[in-house]
Amino acid sequence: MEMDLVLRAVLIGIGATAVMDLWAVGVKRLLGIPSLDYGMVGRWIGHFPQGRFLHQRIAAAAPVRGEQLIGWTAHYAIGVVFAGLLLLIWGTDWAERPTLIPALVVGLETVVAPFFLMQPGMGAGIAASKTPSPNIARLRSLLAHAAFGFGLYLSALASSFLWPS
User: How many Cα neighbours within 13 Å face the side chain of 89?
Assistant: First the structure.
């Protein structure tokens, strides 16, 4: 049971994060809006061992060796953790017969992490309050996390065909 949950969380989390990334590529190509630079996420995380969790502006912080790899790895690992949370709440039965609403609920709730941890830590303020256009930044975050939620559903659906109960 526990190994089943972990394996499903890994598959669903990676798939959902990939859907979120495809959404970002589409937004960039269609609207010219760049996505989050995961190298900056890696830079932020890379300063943790020195006890530095808050930055005025992460782009001005000293670069960290391997920050791109750190950021992208964290991005996918966080997606797996959130997929695991979905499975802990709704159970592996949900993964065997996925429905959209639980996936969207979890996907949208995951926006709490960037609003209250990442953005303040990287110098953008709570819910992007220190950015030039906070409401646009918030909307972009909500849409990206909705895409993640939709990705949770699609990935669970795909895995239910590949991994029947």
Answer: 13
Q: Return d(Cα 82, Cα 58) in angstroms, integer.
A: 25
Our CA angle for 13, 18, 21, nearest 5°, is 130
Give, in degrees to the nearest 5, the angle at Cα 145 between 143 and 92. Answer: 140
Enumerate residues 6+ apart whose C-beta is below 8 A from 50: none
DSSP state of 63: P
Alpha helices in the chain (DSSP H): 2-31, 38-46, 67-90, 92-96, 100-109, 112-113, 119-121, 134-162
More confident residue, 91 or 165: 91
Whether pTM exceeds 0.85: yes
Q: Which two tokens stand for residue 101?
A: 């609403």
**Tokens at residue 148, please?**
């993640």
Q: Which of 71, 49, 51 lies closest to 118 in space, CA to CA?
A: 71
Question: Does the pLDDT of residue 165 top 70, yes or no?
Answer: no
pLDDT of 162: 81
Instruction: Compute the average pLDDT of residues 152-161.
Output: 94
What DSSP state is assigned to residue 59?
A: G
